[in-house]
Amino acid sequence: MNKDSNVKKEYTMVACMLLLWGFIGLNRVGIAFLFPILVPLFHMSYFQAGLLISGTSVLWAVSSWVGGNMADRLGRKKVLIPSMIFAGMMAALMGIAWNFTSMLTVRGLLGVGDGTGWSVGNSMVAEGSAPSRRGLNMGLYSGGYTLVGAGLGAIIITRLSASIGWRWVFPLVGAATVIVAIVIALVVKEKDRGDATRKAVPIWEVFKYRPMIYLIILNCLILTWLQVSIGFNPLFLTKVRHLSPVLAGSVLSGWGIAGFAGQMVLPAISDVIGRKKIIIVSALIASLIYWVYITSNISPALLAVLISASGFFGWGQLSLAMATVVSETVPERLHGTAIGVANFFGVIVGTTVMPAVGGWAAGVWGLSTPLIIAAAAMLLVAFIMIAVPETAPRRGKFGGGGLRADLGD
C-alpha cells in the first residue's frame, strides 16, 4: 500500500511539473511563432529577432545557477514557486510591448523566473523519482517544454494570434503559468532531504567532478541547436519555403510533438541500456535528418515529416544530456547546483550568443545559415558525448550515486 502511494505521488509530481515546464516553454519560445508578425510590426532586423530569443538568456543563466544553489540549501519549492509566479507575470507583460526595446526588456526579466525552473525543477523530479524511472521522469518534465512550448505551442500561438490578436496571447499564457505554480505549491510534496538543506553548498564544488566540463560543452551545443532552431525555423519556412504563418506553425508543431514522444521513449530506453549510447546515436540521426530538411526543396508535408523525425531524436536526448547525466554525475546534495552550473554556461553560449550570431549570419548568407549552424552543433554533441562516462543506475559503474570526488583530483 505504501509503495502504491509513493508511486502515485511520483506520477502526480511528474504530471504537475510537466505542465508547469510546458507553460514556461510556451512563454519562452512562443514569441518565435509570432516573428512573421512582429518583425515587420516593430521594424526589426533578423539580428534583432535573434536578440529577442537571446533576451531571456543572461538572467536565465544567472538564475539557473544561483537558484539551483539556493534550492540545495533552502529547499526546492521555496525557490521554485515564487520564481514561476514571477515568470508568469512577466510573460503577461509581453502583451503590452510597443517596440523592440520594450519587448527585449520584458523578456530579459522573464529569464529570472524561467532559469530557476530548469535547475530546481529537474532537481525535484530527479529526487522524487525511483532510480529505475529517473531518466523517463526527467524526460517527461523536459518534454513539457517540447510538447506545449514547441509542439502544441506552434498551433496555439499562431491560431490564437489569428483569432484574438497577438497581444492577448501572452497574458493567457502567463495566467496559466501562475495557476499551475499554485497547484504545485498545494499538491506536490518535496522530498525530505534532512540536514542537506541547511548546509552551505559552494557553487564551485561541482568542478571536482571531471565530467562536468564535457557536460557544460554539451549544454552549450544542445542549446545552440534548440534556440537557433526555434528562432529561425518560422522565418525559414515563411521566407525561404514561402509557407503562410499558420501552415508554418502546423509544420513546426510536428517538431515539438514528435520531440515529446522522443523524450518519453529515449530516456526510458536509456534507463535500461544506458545514457551514452542513446545520446550519441540520437544526436547523429537528428543532425543528419535536419541537414536534409534544410537543403531539400520538398513539399510542406515532407518538411513536416523530416522536422518531426529530427525532433524525435534531438529533443529525445536533450534531457538526458542536460539534466539526467548531470544529476547522476554528482551527489544528491549538489543536484541543483550542478544542473544550474551546466545550464549557466549553456545558456550564455547557446541561447545568448548563438541566436545573435545566427541572426547576423542570416543577414549575410541567408536564412538557411542559422539552421546549418544548429545541425552542426547537434553533430558535435555525439562526438563530445564519447568522453562522458556512463551514469545510468543499471549500467554505469557510478550510476545513481554520483561519480567519485577523486575523479576530479
Write structural notes for this entry.
The protein has a single domain, classed as Growth Hormone, Chain: A (Up-down Bundle). The chain starts with a helix and ends in a 24-residue tail after the last helix. The model is unreliable at 396-409 (pLDDT under 50). The protein is mainly alpha-helical and 409 residues long. The longest helix is centred in the middle third of the chain and has 31 residues, at 134-164. 77% of the residues lie in helices and 0% in strands. The chain has helices at 2-29, 35-41, 46-54, 57-74, 76-93, 100-127, 134-164, 169-187, 211-240, 245-273, 275-295, 300-316, 318-329, 335-365, 368-385.
Strand content: under 5%
The total tally of domains equals 1
Helix and strand pattern: HHHHHHHHHHHHHHH
Q: Work out the helicity level.
A: over 70%
Question: Helix/strand/pairing class, anyone?
Answer: mainly alpha
**Strand element count:** 0
Rg computed from alpha carbons, rounded to a whole number of angstroms: 20 Å
Overall, the morphology is globular
Major sheet, described briefly? none
For the terminal residues, how far apart are their CA atoms?
A: 45 Å
The count of helical stretches stands at: 15
Sequence stretches where pLDDT stays below 50 over 5 or more residues = 396-409
Going by CATH, the homologous superfamily would be MFS general substrate transporter like domains
CATH topological fold name: Growth Hormone, Chain: A
CATH classification, class level: Mainly Alpha
Average pLDDT for all residues: 85
Question: What's the architecture in CATH terms?
Answer: Up-down Bundle
